[in-house]
Amino acid sequence: MNEVKSALEIAAVDDSKFVLLSVVGSVFCCGLDFDIIVKHLKYNRKRASVKLEDTIKNFVNFFIVFMKPVIVSVKGPAIGLGASILPLCDVVWANEKAWFQTPYTRFGQSPDGCSTITFPKIMGRAAANEMLINGWKMNAQEACDKGLVSQVFWSETFTQEVMVRIQITSCNSFVLENSKALVCYNMNVELKQANERECEVVKKIWAPAQGMEYMLKYVQNKIDAF
């Protein structure tokens, strides 16, 4: 998260007109690494939970306030925070093999990435609850139908389709940034408040011993399944 944030900080002040967020490989993002989180929380849960909460909050807030357009190219699974930050970006394209899941309750977590606000607004409350509470695994076409994704393309020609459709390279930077600002103007305060609430709940879950037990059980189940 800190590395992505650092890259965005550089992009915010250089002469680029937009950011293309993509990956090398077949997985977009698997979300938070609970193996690492459990190791941090083992020694000083209260201090570690505050530090982790701040990291997530700052990461998400940077997407909220980032002024340049962010185009996302998803060519594989987007899980947890990897899926919940997508509505904070401006254009999301996916290939046919991509899928999206936010199975927070399965590993004893609460939603993050402002998804408690963005998901119900985008896809309606019922579908949002299926994602955030029931852990619905949504395929690329379903994500497009629900508004989480802008367009879906064939896997074989995905990169070419993305590059062809990036039409904003010739646009004026001032126009781009102010157009985005107008679209986001009424939402940013609400998103920041949602991020604050979500991170506060995450901290409350991580700090007590019970929260640690939920995550340990999830990590152990993953090991057993492997």
TrEMBL record:
Protein's UniProt keywords contain rRNA-binding: no
CDD domains attached to this UniProt entry: crotonase-like
Keywords: Membrane, Transmembrane, Transmembrane helix
Transmembrane segments: 18-38
Recorded superkingdom: Eukaryota
Coiled-coil segments: none
UniProt KW Membrane keyword: yes
PANTHER family, A to Z: PTHR43684, TESTIS-SPECIFIC CHROMODOMAIN PROTEIN Y 1-RELATED
Identification of the protein by name: Uncharacterized protein
Species this chain originates from: Saguinus oedipus (Cotton-top tamarin)
Taxonomic lineage of the native organism: Eukaryota, Metazoa, Chordata, Craniata, Vertebrata
